[in-house]
Design brief:
Blueprint: H1 9-21, H2 70-75, H3 80-93, H4 97-106, H5 112-115, E1 123-124, E2 130-134, H6 139-144, H7 150-161, E3 171-175, H8 189-206, E4 210-214, H9 215-223, H10 229-232, E5 237-240, E6 245-251, H11 254-259, H12 264-281
Parallel strand pairs: 2-3, 2-4, 4-6
Antiparallel strand pairs: 1-3, 5-6
Helix pairs in contact: 3-8
Length: about 280
């Protein structure tokens, strides 16, 4: 049998790129393990063998046999209904954006937090009249600890600049779910339901004059609609998130436009309509 050749550098880079695109960025074991193998029975000590040494720790440090380990406690899953209630309680208790940000960073009701590097609560500038809402932070956002970063953020910055808006000073940003989803997938309906109260409270505290929902998932969540973004784009809907009605419209997500550049023409028309609407909503002197 002819031995297979070792992979070359290009093949290794392609494999690593595939792993990264799949959300795999950490090797757990040096060798693969069979997770379905039946664990071997613990061996019994031979007759006459000395008993294992007893711990010399005092009663303060000795573990109770029935007490869960720290690892088990950390992996304990909060029931879905309770997670929603916990998010509602967390949101209601926050009196300002600083308090809400701290509460979201401490919130453990969404399992996405366990796989994310960072909690991405907000971006842009607080007090801006236009609030952008995405479905979830990108992988670049999670890596950089900053909202609207990476290649998608660069494109978004160019789109906003085309209508005389600065990404850092003229918009405020938030997410339906403040943790990235492995593999770049969209958050599930359950993720949205759990984190919804947190986003709604963020919108109520930020008090934007208008909201721009980026992409299908964010648009459907904010507008409570099953229509696709191609059906929702170009229209405005008044929605109330706890501080009075605010107009909401939808725009193609920059990540989608990177994959489907033919839709950039429609996005440009939507941006022009957005600029006109923002002029109408601008406070008079």
């Amino acid at each position: 049998m002819t031995a297979s050749a070792e992979p070359n550098r290009a093949e290794l880079e392609q494999l690593l790129r595939f792993y990264a695109d799949s959300g795999l960025d950490l090797a757990l074991d040096a060798e693969p393990s069979d997770r379905f193998a039946v664990p071997a029975e613990p061996s019994q000590p031979a007759a006459g063998a000395p008993a294992p040494a007893q711990s010399v720790s005092g009663p303060e440090t000795a573990a109770h046999p029935s007490a869960p380990t720290a690892k088990a406690a950390q992996s304990a899953r909060i029931p879905d209904d309770r997670a929603v209630e916990l998010a509602q309680e967390t949101a209601a208790a926050a009196g300002d954006l600083d308090a809400l940000r701290a509460a979201v960073e401490a919130f453990d009701g969404c399992n996405l937090k366990r796989s994310a590097r960072n909690t991405i609560f907000e971006g842009g500038r607080r007090g801006a009249g236009l609030m952008l809402v995405g479905a979830a932070p990108s992988r670049d956002d999670d890596k950089n600890g900053e909202a609207l970063s990476g290649i998608d953020g660069i494109l978004l910055g160019k789109m906003l600049a085309a209508i005389d808006l600065d990404k850092q000073t003229d918009i405020y940003a938030g997410f339906c779910v403040p943790w990235t989803v492995p593999g770049g997938e969209r958050p599930t309906a359950l993720h949205m339901k759990i984190c919804g109260p947190l986003l709604h409270r963020q919108i109520a505290l930020a008090r934007p004059r208008a909201i721009l929902a980026l992409g299908n998932a964010a648009s459907q969540h904010l507008l409570g609609s099953r229509e696709t973004i191609t059906q929702m784009r170009g229209t405005w809907v008044e929605a109330d998130f706890g501080a009075g009605p605010v107009p909401v419209t939808a725009l193609f997500d920059p990540a989608f436009l990177q994959r489907q550049p033919s839709f950039k023409r429609m996005a440009w028309l939507d941006l022009l309509a957005l600029k006109k609407r923002l002029t109408e909503l601008a406070p008079t002197a």
